[in-house]
Design brief:
alpha+beta, globular, about 25% helix, 5-stranded antiparallel sheet, about 35% strand
């Protein structure tokens, strides 16, 4: 799923091995941290078209999106 927020956008997919984990991906540095400031973001520029990734619990992702809805 793609999520667009004021600060940018991210792509979110379920981890293939653990359905409780979602992988949040971004093309631009800082887009993930704008919604999930405590996320541990890794830089993977040569692996795929999304250079930045974070593995987050499903609940964390939902809370971050909910915060965006209520703030904007």
């Amino acid at each position: 799923m793609w999520v667009f927020v004021r600060e940018g956008y991210v792509s979110i997919v379920e981890d293939r091995l653990n359905p409780d984990i979602l992988i949040v991906r971004a093309r631009i540095k800082g887009d993930i941290e704008a919604v999930w400031p405590d996320a541990e973001v890794i830089h993977t520029p040569v692996l795929a078209d999304y250079a930045f990734r974070a593995r987050l619990k499903r609940e964390e992702v939902a809370a971050g999106i909910a915060d965006q809805v209520f703030e904007n």
